[in-house]
Amino acid sequence: MSAPNMAVEIASIGMKNPVMVASGTFGYGPEYAEFVDLNALGAIVVKGIRMEPWEGNAPPRMVEVHGGLVNAIGLQGPGVEGFVEAYLPFLREFDVPVLINIWGRSLEEYGEVAAAFDGVEGVAGLELNISCPNVKEGGIAFGTDPAMAAEVIALARSKTRLPLIPKLSPNVPNVALFAKVAEDEGADAISLINTLPAMVIDVETRRPVLSNVVGGLSGPGIKPVAIKQVWEAARAVSIPVVGMGGITCARDAIEFLIAGATAVAVGTANFTEPTASVDVIQGIEQYLIDHDIADVRELIGSVNESA
Amino acid sequence: MCIVGGGFQAAPFLFWIDRFAPNQHTERSMKSEAATVLEHRDFGGGYNLLVFDVPAVASEVVPGQFIHLRVPRLEGAVLRRPFSVFKADAQTLSVLYKQVGRGTRAMGEIAAGESVSIVGPLGNGFPQADASAFPVLVAGGYGVAPLYLLASRMPAKGILFVGGRSEIDILCVDAFLELGWEVQVTTEDGSIGSKGLVTGALDRWLSSRGPEVRPEFFACGPDGLLKAVGDRVISGNGQGWLSLDKHMGCGVGACLACVQKIRVDGGSVVWKRVCKDGPIFEAHEIVWPSEDSA
Question: CA gyration radius for chain A?
Answer without folding.
Answer: 18
